[in-house]
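Purpose: get a first structural picture of the assembly so the mutagenesis plan has something to point at.
Setup: two entries, given in the order below. No constraints added.
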Amino acid sequence: MTKLPQFHAAKWDEPVVMAMGRPGARGQLFPSPEPEVMDAAGPAPIPAAMVRRDRPDLPEITEFEAQRHYLHLSQMTLGMMGVSLFGTCTMKYNSKTSEFATWRPELAEVHPYQHPDTLQGVLSIIHEFDTILRSLSGMDQFVFQAGGGADAAYTMTAVARAYWADRGLLGQRTEMVTTIQAHPCNPATAAAAGFRVINLPLEENGYPSLDALKAAVSDRTALIMLNNPDDMGIYNPEITEWVKAARAVGALCFYDHANFNGVMGKLSARELGFDACMFMLHKTFGAPKAGGGPAVGAYGCTADLAPYMPAPIVTRTCDVYALDEGRPKSCGKIRELWGNVPQVVKAWAWARAMGAEGIQTASDISVVANNYMDHRLGQIPGLAKSNPGNRQRRMEMTRWSLGPLHEETGIGTVEFANRMADYGIDPWWMSHEPWIVPQPFTPEAGELWSKDDIDRWIDVVAQIAKEARETPDLVRTAPHNQPIAQVKGAVFDDPAQWAMTWRAYLRKRAGAGAGAGAERGAA
Amino acid sequence: MATSHPSQRHPHPRRAHPWMANSAPGVLEGMLAEIGAASVAEVFEQIPESHFRKAPLDLPPQLASEMELKRELVTRLKRNANCEDNLSFLGAGVWQHHVPAIVDEIVGRTEFATNVWGSYQSDHGRNQAWWEFQSQLGALLNLDVVQLPVYSWGCAIGHAIRMAARLTCRAKVLVPALSDPERLSVIRTYCQPAGMAGAIEVVLVAADPTTGRLDLSDLRAKLGPDVAAVYFENPAYLGTIETAAADIRRAADTLREVLK
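Result (structure tokens, whole complex):
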């Protein structure tokens, strides 16, 4: 066993920013407009009917106080600066070289409506990245407008609508078929796009049967949406038959490549028969999503579907790059403009730094490391692998269960996640809904973490399993070494006990007769 | 580890990659030995041999050193003309702002700027920062409930329209004719094509040609009990201030009585 980290998070114990400062203090001053501008605007540029009467109740603090407060908040954030094997999200090194490059005025201070001749640098990057993804997938065209993986799935549903409408069959092709192992955003986006969703259940092998798919698809099927391997780490070996069955009824086939890390350079969506696919640049391609984004879902498809994609598309003619907005069959915009371009630049930089050789090595490492992790986790009593009947080695992640340990000790996956933070280890990912195994957790090693990091992570899991048996209250009451104590989920059922803003917090506190003092912590 | 298995057609790198600890010599082999696998190919045993790609990867040359990568990034980006060197009045939803220096410092903090989503147990600071963001927007907007941002302005409108349609069981929305065409296209995407069961009809409200404001008589003519929501902006797309906001609100409010 490696030495377990003696860790304690920073705890600054200071008020929320809304309760800081002093009347009249300022963190930023703004220059007055020039006299010519003042004269042209007149004394009341905003009509009286629209002028705000009250002043917003914002914190009045100095520039230094703002800097110090938010630095304190960053210090109270682990943010994978321990070890994070957060499955399904694929933790990567997020290069500062590419981060800082995107802050340069040559990218941060450009406008998407500049003439393309003045944007040849960024357009060349977007175009080259398009060709990189074409090679990785076999598709003919990519677009980067989608703001995340789910938005790329939504792009697929919009493309499918335009494709079927162009054939006069939108009224007939009303169904989307997927499986419960797909990310919940796949059925959700299809439903939001107006399709009826058919969700196939899993069978003994860990994936739905080919017969179930054949029974579900028909001349009403607009498209099928699949991910493979799934979050259990199981690869559906019948995927080519699935695609054939869907194509036999004329349906479009979409490959959700969320779990691409273990098959990068190994599989081609096009060669497997798919019409379209998507990659998550904020995950597989090393761009940081910084919690909630900005992110990018790169959507790619065959030349047959390309006319229906959202515009603009970046084109190249004789080494001159341009934006093609004139696409009469396009499904329309998924978002405004070109997408989160700095993230595309970082993803391009990741792909260039890795190269074909590095990408192949990364998928090798991802799958070997996960199997090493499986091997060691299997030696900890109380842990169980999902789909124990499947004896084959898993892909880049594995869904595990704490079911036996939970039955023995009452300590489950939420308690483990709480306690991991005490060791400076980022809490694990449990599972998307529905929970197919009891007390699930889903580790993914990827290519970033060293074998020593992986060993330390497993040693912490083994230590908490030991604590669950010997000192269960220590685990049940965790975290102990973090800036706040355990978050009790039950309060979220009672709107009187939570608030999404400071003003709502003050109102609810006053309503409860508890006074509206500046309490600490986020309510 | 030489093998003809399709997962292993690529040559093995001669040097470790700075972003992959386990690319150092011998590490992969050590893990394979511990799990009792004879080769890397063996861990890919779930994938049928016929599924492995046949077309070789065709990517531009690797830039594994930071020096090469930075040179390529900077060389390319310098081909852009930027709005720091040139005066720009382009707008249409993308405006130049002064960004305080400490903002760059804070958003660049690596604890914040990684792949991590941010578990509440370990990332309290991130969660507090988000909550403070919501609180400050709540103060600016005088609203009690503020969420974290969705994908974009147009996407936020799309979500709001679909929510309004569900709340009212109505399938029509009124939108200014003088709208950003990009945003309008996003709205139409969210509203679904006509003929689908969940489609919401997008009806454009004319602008007063002299002021650019909403034509209130056209608004009232189109505002019926089948309308789920009225959307307008302030300032409007062409930079005018919609002074009749209260009148628009009152006109829409009359339809609320129809609701149960």
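The first helix of chain A runs from residue 35 to 41.
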